[in-house]
């Protein structure tokens, strides 16, 4: 096989060895050159592009192999979605691109030139890891969580502060480094959060770091989950916020129909590349609300997730059922027989799958950062009759532990990112604080704080030593029998003690 790709190439490639040429498959029919280039821009210079539109494929040549490795590595853990369609990114077997003068390739070269010198050198002009974001033409309310969801595509959002200045809604947002900030600015500056309104104007801040004192709806430090919520700060339950999120943007429709209750026009315009958010940068709105905010959703029918980098000796189907069950009803789980650090998790629908992937991707479970992408499988197959798979495949479709079977259940409104603080409920009167602290420390974890709800001792908050310890405690003690026919209910809390 030739080491040069050209426009007449008709072979399918399965590149495994690193190359600065990246092969992109399963592209939408009406894909644009700009959208393909946008896939590579956050990772470095894009030096060449070859479009094979009739095959729904493209080749993208980065300026160096390291940039291509970063790109392929990232998209192997977080599948990119263009216009609600998952696309596949892998190394090409070719080492460079050779383009001709056909009209198709002239368009590709023109698109590359149109990005300009500053776009082709993301690191060159980045001056700060802190961005100042102004939202113009604010026809609909924009929350801190919505901004985190949008900006987390380009890197982990460390800290964010939202405020109003000169009658304009603004935010300061800090990334780990200036490269992430530059990539976000290049791709998002001038974009609309909603169709024809809520326009983002982005510049570099003179600040080098943000000092956040409280974790609430106005400020957040994702590196400090222990920060207090502060006094007098509005929450989503505050009357003024409730009015802001009146029907029109946030739907009160039941969760099961959420995917059908909003117009597809509520997307970042123009329709571009979207990927699921990183941990901690996820809205704490209801499921229907998250969909209405225009966050990218998986295509209907896509409800199986591929979960990798699991601890093969500790993770079981039941463990994944409990954890993923925080974000939706898990139907089936299959740990792969020949690759036990990898599993398939089938959710009830695509909205639940999106929610679980967004909240759990990158979280640590038994010492390993879990990676979650969309699976190519449409369902998890049970073992054929007479075939034993050592209990690696489990059907949970009739489990009594599903949290979202009841339409309108309060569980819909209490879905939050993994946190060190857990919410406990269904506690019988005979169980006291020391009983629960002893239970949650019995596996060797640290219990830092505990508090019963003042008006209802059936509920309590317990703060573990870390988010990872809280995740493991939720898996171990959700549905734990406390006696008197009371089984403990455990979920993640948005509050801290």
From TrEMBL:
This is Polypyrimidine tract-binding protein 1. One of its GO terms (molecular function) is RNA binding. SUPFAM superfamilies: RNA-binding domain, RBD. One of its GO terms (cellular component) is nucleus. Residues 131-207, 303-377, 420-495 form the RRM domain. It is found in: Nucleus. It comes from Takifugu flavidus. The lineage of its organism: Eukaryota, Metazoa, Chordata, Craniata, Vertebrata. InterPro entries: HnRNP-L/PTB, HNRNPL_RRM, Nucleotide-bd_a/b_plait_sf, PTBP1-like_RRM2, RBD_domain_sf, RRM_dom.
């Amino acid at each position: 096989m030739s080491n040069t790709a050209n426009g007449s190439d008709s072979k399918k490639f399965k590149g495994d060895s690193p190359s600065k040429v990246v092969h992109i498959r399963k592209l939408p029919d009406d894909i644009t050159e700009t959208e393909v280039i946008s896939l590579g821009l956050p990772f470095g210079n894009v030096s060449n592009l070859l479009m094979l539109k009739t095959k729904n494929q493209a080749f993208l040549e980065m300026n160096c192999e390291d940039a291509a490795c970063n790109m392929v590595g990232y998209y192997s853990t977080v599948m990119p979605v263009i216009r609600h369609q998952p696309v596949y990114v892998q190394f090409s077997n070719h080492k460079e691109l050779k383009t001709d003068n056909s009209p198709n390739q002239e368009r590709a070269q023109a698109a590359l030139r149109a990005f300009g010198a500053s776009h082709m050198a993301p690191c060159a002009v980045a001056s700060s890891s802190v961005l100042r974001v102004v939202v113009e033409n604010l026809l609909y309310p924009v929350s801190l969580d919505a901004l985190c969801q949008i900006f987390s595509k380009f890197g982990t959002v460390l800290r964010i502060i939202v405020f109003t200045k000169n009658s304009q809604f603004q935010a300061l947002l800090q990334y780990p480094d200036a490269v992430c900030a530059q990539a976000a600015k290049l791709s998002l500056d001038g974009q609309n959060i909603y169709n024809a309104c809520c326009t983002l104007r982005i510049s570099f801040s003179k600040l080098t770091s943000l000092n956040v004192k409280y974790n609430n709806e106005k400020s957040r430090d994702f590196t400090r989950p222990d920060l207090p919520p502060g006094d007098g700060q509005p929450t989503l339950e505050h009357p003024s916020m409730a009015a802001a999120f009146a029907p029109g943007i946030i739907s009160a429709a039941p969760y099961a129909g959420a995917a059908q209750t909003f117009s597809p026009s509520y997307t970042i315009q123009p329709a571009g590349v979207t990927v699921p958010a990183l941990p901690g940068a996820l809205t704490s709105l209801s499921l229907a609300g998250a969909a209405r905010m225009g966050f990218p959703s998986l295509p209907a029918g896509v409800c199986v997730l591929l979960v990798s980098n699991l601890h093969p000796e500790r993770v079981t189907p039941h463990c994944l059922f409990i954890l993923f069950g925080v974000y939706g009803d898990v139907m089936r789980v299959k740990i792969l027989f020949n690759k036990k650090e990898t599993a398939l998790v089938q959710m009830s629908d695509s909205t639940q799958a999106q929610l679980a992937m967004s909240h759990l991707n990158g979280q640590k479970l038994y010492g390993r950062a879990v990676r979650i992408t969309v699976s190519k499988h449409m369902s998890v197959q049970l073992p054929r009759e007479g075939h034993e798979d050592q209990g690696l495949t489990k059907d949970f479709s009739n489990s009594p532990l599903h949290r979202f079977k009841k339409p309108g259940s309060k569980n819909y409104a209490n879905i939050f990112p993994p946190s060190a603080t857990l919410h406990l409920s269904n506690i019988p009167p005979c169980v006291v604080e020391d009983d629960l602290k002893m239970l949650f420390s019995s596996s060797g974890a640290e219990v830092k704080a505990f508090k019963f709800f003042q008006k209802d001792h059936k509920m309590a908050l317990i703060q573990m030593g870390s988010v990872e310890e809280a995740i493991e405690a939720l898996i171990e003690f959700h549905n734990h029998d406390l006696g008197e026919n009371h089984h403990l209910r455990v979920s993640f809390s948005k509050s801290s003690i």
